[in-house]
TrEMBL record:
Pfam families: Calpain_III, Got1, Peptidase_C2
Family affiliation: Belongs to the peptidase C2 family.
The protein, known as: Calpain-C isoform X1
UniProt cross-references to CDD domains, sorted A to Z: Calpain_III (cd00214), EFh_PEF_CalpC (cd16197)
PROSITE patterns given in the database record: CALPAIN_CAT
Organism annotation: Vespula maculifrons (Eastern yellow jacket)
Tagged with keyword Transmembrane helix: yes
Keywords, in A-Z order: Membrane, Transmembrane, Transmembrane helix
GO CC terms in record: cytoplasm; endomembrane system; membrane
Length: 586
């Protein structure tokens, strides 16, 4: 096989931590890997049998071995010339030497075998006629809250580690090698293997590891590499590389070597919506909702609806004074409105609020099931299981985004963070479910696509407002105004979706506002820009006055226009109009 054997001298303090150039009395350098070429047996004139080991110093000349059987040593005179010629004593390359087996064992502390795959072994001439290893590798990482579950001692988090499916076509001896990429602070690493059917495609849950006995357990050590050689039957296997302690982060490479073809792939779960996370309130109103209705109506407008700011006041009044109240912040309230407002008006009806209260109770139960150690604090490693109970089946990539967005410095989430994650997922799945032609209730999605359309929509709307502003500055240039209107409406459709855009403009109580706004746009397109902009502005104020603070915050981020709106004097005026738009961090 295409393998190299090396030997090295380590002292106890420097073992596998750093190399030392210190020399032993026989000239062998500590910390240097000497290549082992051959082991031969010779017989002296006296009939004594001696075993010799041929080594090579990779540094070449300058580090010569000076012990027994060294180059030019008197020991060579004790064997026949024919033996010296067979061992090529006079034709050895630079750095090559022979050493007796007894001295070899006394001198070197570690013997290491380096296995090379077909591509790498081409660079070593001595391996050209050897049978090559078949090698598969996976490069991954242990990330806190996502894939850093620790060793099997941690039963509650072991299953979140990367899971690799190994398939062997026949019984074979394989070598599994795990390398960590840490340099300064090495983690204690290792891996565990289980038998697993060949047809497995999704990641394995917690219950499997609690019931299943492991087949192979490597040693756990704080070295750069941990390797294990074992004989495996034909079939499928599950490899789980881990750090010894959970939450430890570093990247790694896992390689599997075999003399026969093999397959290695990562097991992961496709993201899907198992059931709706939003719970609908029962049709018959009970006494539980009547206590909320009075408070709701006090804050609602003439259409019996509330915006995000009023919703925050409502939740602060209705929620109990415990960890649940952490969701009564502006960031969560804005996300609630974005997710539960089907009309696109930026406001919620009382029925929407009842659905929210029922959903909060449902989400609280799921949250509580996974926070038994400390009430109100969810460990990031349990977020995937908690969201699965709510109805979201997530893969590692999506979970990584949520952890990056919501995990706190101590590696935990509060209830408000949990609610925000649910709302973001509900919004994302809802958008793609509306575009699913099969409408089968279980879909696969990429959050990157959702972000892509949202960013395009924000960009189009921003450019539209900029064109409108420039059109007004250039004495109502009808071309710029027409382009600005088209870009703004297109951007709005990309951000909230075509269906919600139509619903937003064509609600019965908004007929006057929508007719004015769209009519003004039509008048601008027909060539009467001044009249059209007056009508359009009137309709715009009627349509968007309900979330004027959000609109002002958005306009401040628009290129050119944002610079003007953030000027000191104008900024103070807008702050008074918009009110407090600062977000409260949970």
């Amino acid at each position: 096989m295409t393998s190299l054997i090396t030997c090295v001298v380590h002292n106890n303090q420097q073992h596998q931590l750093r190399a030392s150039t210190e020399k032993l009395a026989n000239g062998i350098q500590m910390g240097i890997n000497y290549r082992l070429y051959a082991i031969e047996r010779v017989e002296t004139f006296s009939g004594e049998a001696v075993q010799l080991v041929k080594l090579r110093n990779p540094l070449g000349p300058g580090g010569e071995y000076i012990g027994a059987w060294a180059r030019g040593g008197l020991e060579w005179d004790e064997i026949p010339a024919m033996e010296r010629e067979r061992l090529a004593v006079r034709n050895m390359a630079e750095g090559e030497f022979w050493i007796s087996y007894s001295d070899f064992v006394k001198t070197f502390t570690h013997l290491e075998v380096v296995h090379l795959d077909a591509e790498t072994s081409r660079d070593e001439p001595s391996l050209h006629n050897k049978h090559t290893w078949q090698m598969k590798l996976y490069q991954g990482s242990w990330r806190r809250g996502v894939t850093a579950g620790g060793c099997r001692n941690n039963q509650e988090t072991f299953h979140i580690n990367p899971q690799l499916h190994l398939i062997l076509s026949e019984m074979e001896e394989v070598i599994v090698s795990l390398n960590q990429h840490s340099i300064m602070e090495l983690k204690v690493i290792g891996f565990t293997a289980y038998t697993l059917p060949k047809n497995s495609t999704e990641s394995i849950n917690k219950q499997f590891f609690k019931k299943k006995k492991s087949l192979v357990n490597s040693e756990y050590t704080n070295s750069r590499q941990v390797s294990h050689r074992c004989q495996l039957e034909q079939g499928g296997y599950l490899l789980v590389p881990t750090t010894f302690e959970p939450t430890q982060e570093t990247s790694f490479t896992l390689r599997v070597y075999s003399s026969k073809p093999l397959k290695l792939k990562l097991l992961d779960t496709p993201p899907s919506l198992m059931k709706s996370a939003i719970v609908k309130a029962p049709p018959l109103e009970g006494k539980g909702f009547s206590q909320y209705e009075a408070v709701f109506l006090q804050l609602a407008d003439e259409h019996r609806t509330v915006n995000a700011f009023e919703l925050q006041e409502l939740l602060e009044a209705c929620l109990p004074n415990d960890y649940i109240k952490s969701c009564a912040c502006m960031e969560v309230c804005r996300q609630v409105v974005l997710t539960m407002d089907s009309s696109g008006s930026g406001r919620l009806k009382f029925n929407d609020f009842k659905d929210l209260m029922c959903s909060l109770k449902y989400w609280q139960a799921a949250f509580k099931n996974h926070t038994k150690e400390k009430t109100g604090i969810l460990k990031a490693e349990r977020l995937r299981d908690a969201l699965l109970e709510v109805g979201f089946q997530l893969n590692t990539d999506v979970l990584s985004i949520l952890i990056l967005r919501y995990m706190r410095k101590d590696g935990t989430l509060r209830f408000g963070d949990f609610v925000s994650a649910i709302l973001h997922l509900s919004d994302a799945f809802g958008i793609f479910e509306s575009k699913d032609p099969l409408q089968n209730g279980t879909i696969k999605l990429s959050l990157a696509e959702k972000n892509f359309f949202t960013e395009i929509g924000v960009g189009l709307a921003g450019f539209g407002i900029s064109f409108l502003f420039l059109g007004i500055l250039l004495f109502f240039d009808k071309g710029l105004l027409a382009i600005g209107n088209l870009l703004f409406i297109s951007g709005l459709a990309c951000v909230i979706g075509p269906r919600r855009t139509l619903s937003f403009f064509f609600q019965w109580h908004k007929i006057k506002a929508s007719a004015s706004f769209l009519g003004g746009v039509l008048v601008v397109l027909m060539g009467w820009p001044i009249v059209g902009m007056i009508i359009e502005t009137y309709g715009f104020v009627l349509l968007f006055s309900g979330f004027l603070p959000v609109a002002i915050s958005f306009l401040r981020r628009v290129p050119i226009l944002g610079t003007i709106l953030n000027m000191p004097g104008l900024s103070r005026i807008l702050n008074k109009i918009a009110g407090d738009t600062n977000r409260t961090t949970v």
